[in-house]
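Let's study today's protein:

:::
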Amino acid sequence: MPADGAGPAGERVVAAGSTARVLVAAAARALRGADCADLGHPPSLARFPGAPEPVRRAAVARTAGRVALPVEQAATVDAERVARWFVEQYPRRRYPGAVLGSAHGAAVHLAVALGVPWLPAGFEMTVRWTDGAVDHPRAAHDHGAALAGRLLSGNTDVHVRQVHCPASRGALAGATVTLGVRWQRLPRAYARFLAARLAPDASVLLLRDARTWPVRDDGRGHSFQVGCPASGLDPVDFHPDSPALRQVLRSAGGDRSRWDPPDVSSARALAENSVEAGFELGAREWTGRRGHRLHRVLFPQPEVLSAATADLYRGWLRGAGKTGNRLVVECGRLLDPWQVVRAGLVPYWCENATRRSVAAAEWWLAGSEPFTSVDVLPEPPGVPSPALAGLPQWLAVAAFGRRRRALDRTAARGYPVTSVPTRRATEVLRNQPYDLPVPPPLAVDAALAALRDGGAAQGLLVG
């Protein structure tokens, strides 16, 4: 393990704009009674349209150089220091529980309703790949395996999942490698934080993403996947003969004829956003020793947890004498948990702007009691993809509002290849009328019962 204080700080290690980073920041602010007005732009994933190839590659390389770690720093990364950076963002007080696990916006809304912190089971980092190419996944695997070896030499209790996905990262997939670092035990910083901050009768909720994907795992602490569920595509769409892959690579400056993915297992493994079995076991052992209860919430698709949490919020708000009839549909990094509770809104979180994610929101709305107002915050992903929802589909979501139907024009302008800061969600939600006081925190048992009732039919498992 690197010496304490050695290597890059947690803020430098965790990828700027990564979901876990944004969610911790949003949750910590909400527990302090603050919004996300200070959260800025994620790193640009712009395509540099119309530029000659050498100019485009140079621009992508400059972007990567600003936001990604240098190769030589991979060996000095301290995963325990990252865990410490996460917990240090939260206010120092006693909490009636905690929410841990997979990165999901609804998990953060759940934590805020409970009045507890949310902590991720891993984090994402990006490392420079100076001689990389978006259409060479085999070379990406080799480069990532070498980087993972350096990182694992100082962090024996993590697993590194590398994801090469030009559909979600565009040209940056050829200038950097993306490494998902997942703890295989409860980090010491988490254990210390929970021991100091949990009330004696507190419960811990562990939320786990159960999606799977074909993965290459050589058994040395590093695994590799081409594409990812969050791309909105299927594994077959990353086959060399796929029309979708042709579109993706053309947009990212690659060539399908050079696409050379390494062999992967025909069997699927849990995808990059899941939780390592050792992390869950460590959390269970720790809570058992301390006399706390651990509850596991397993969701087969992100929209299942989003829908169950939205239903939970509606019941929570109505129990406090509010209408629960105003909905905000958030997307990706465009969320603000504090403004949601301040305005008495029901939040539904879309993982991304793919057609599947937006269609799931439509289906949930179609089966729900109508809302008087629906505000929609579509996050432009910054890269084009055949899997993305068009603005008409987003407008169809807003159309479910009986009196107010609003699609944020700033987010829609330049969609899908622009980028919008997290604080844009704050700017939009600040215009919602106040609905104070904020309801008292939801009890854990009541939240678990609501999740069971709202999600059981869609495969949500609560134990």
Notes: The first strand starts at residue 95 and ends at 101.
